Amino acid sequence: MDEIRNKNLIKQLDAAENDREFLVFGQPQILEDEIEEVVACLRSGWIGTGPRVARFEQDFAAFKGVERAVAVGSCSAAIHLSVGICIEPGDEVITSALTFCSTVNSIIHAGGRPVLADIDPGTMNLDSRDVEARITSRTRALVPVHFGGRPCDMDALLALAGRHGLRVIEDCAHAIEAEYHGVGTGRIGDFGCFSFYATKNLTTGEGGMVLARRPQDLDRIRTLALHGLSTDAWSRFQDTGQKHSYAIQVGYKYNMTDLQAAIGIHQLRRIERNRRRRTEIWSRYQDAFQDLPADLPAAPGPDTRHAAHLYTLLIDESRAGIGRDDFLDAMKRLAIGVGVHYLSIAEHPIYRELFGWEPETWPEAYRVGRRTVSLPLSPKLTDADVERVIRAVRKTLRSD
Predict the structure, then answer these.
(1) Rounded CA gap, 156 and 93, in Å?
(2) 71 - beta bridge partners?
(3) Helix, strand, coil in percent for the chain, rounding step 5
(4) Are the C-beta atoms of 86 and 105 separated by less than 8 Å?
(5) Average model confidence (pLDDT) across the chain
(6) What pLDDT is recorded for position 231?
(7) Mean pLDDT, to the nearest integer, of 54-82?
């Protein structure tokens, strides 16, 4: 990298864009419906787990085409509880080498030993061949991550799970609306775990949801998510006579609140409209960046539906003349918020310390993790915002 060229570029960008308002990456679209529902919730006097959580669960279950769903405090909680049902302490659970740390943390908290498998460089999802190579007699479960909203190759993963007697927990944090061969994500494996974090396709600020194939598993998750009690607060405090709660399992404080659900109820009503808008932005980026010295996301796979959660460019310094981190800095100087999804898991110091992992063991995840950058893709973006992003990317990569 030419240091003088870098400094000159940064000066030019500063001069051109120093008066622009910063475009926040992943900013949620919050409208009056959500605000009014939150105010009504506050005025109701019931802000903990109550009727709005129950309503949100019912609405989400209907959206996904299942009978029931259980709301929890986060996708991390959802994965933790789901994995915990499937394994005994010390069992191995295979997941992606390119994911957020919460996927691995949830496996560890459940008592499992995470085993990483490399990714397919085109889809950034699990490479089923590498998964198969890492299955041992201690393997009990797989946690495929539908990266960026693109469904994994679930046929191949389910075939492996069937041959080896493994359970499958789908990490659907990016993939609420995604479908694989006509089936919604979260309904393909044994469990589906969803995120409603601030940057997700549907937000409640924080929060998550769990689907399960077996009703008894979902019943257990509901109990574990609120201290292991036999009844929830909404049931205990209704005016139908005094009820005592008994701890029947050693549970967790993983419940969702009505304040969160008040946002989610209305977010869910707009989820398809918002996906269409994100898909429009995605397509605009694809058209605008075809000639750039960067790798663009692959098109959605056949007979699948992409949730369009992330739009990721891979910056190749040998072609672009600028490294990924310098690209990030330059975009921020142009007042464009960007993200990194993700550094490969084995690059994080704590996992290297705990498991002795070396990033080069998973070469594709390592390569992508060093080159990837995510561009703004919120339905809140105006057409003018999208053009700002496009101009900034092109200017930074010196293609115009």
Answers:
(1) 17
(2) 209
(3) 45, 15, 40
(4) no
(5) 93
(6) 74
(7) 98
Tell me, yes or no, if 64 is annotated catalytic. no
> What is the predicted pLDDT for the residue at 244?
78
Q: Do domains 3-28+271-338+376-396 and 32-269 have the same CATH topology?
A: no
- Token couple for 30: 């919050």
Write down the domain spans for the chain. 3-28+271-338+376-396, 32-269
Crossing angle of helices 258-269 and 51-64, in 10° steps, is 30
pLDDT of 235 > 70? The answer is: no
Contact (Cβ atoms closer than 8 angstroms) between residue 155 and residue 188: no
Q: What is the DSSP letter of 97?
A: S
Written out in words, the top-level CATH class of the domain with range 32-269 is: alpha beta
> What is the pLDDT, as a whole number, of residue 16?
46
Mean pLDDT over residues 232-245, rounded?
A: 60
Give pLDDT tens digits for 352-369: 999 999 999 999 999 999
Which of these is catalytic: 7, 11, 200, 332? 200
Q: Does domain 3-28+271-338+376-396 have CATH number 3.90.1150.10?
A: yes
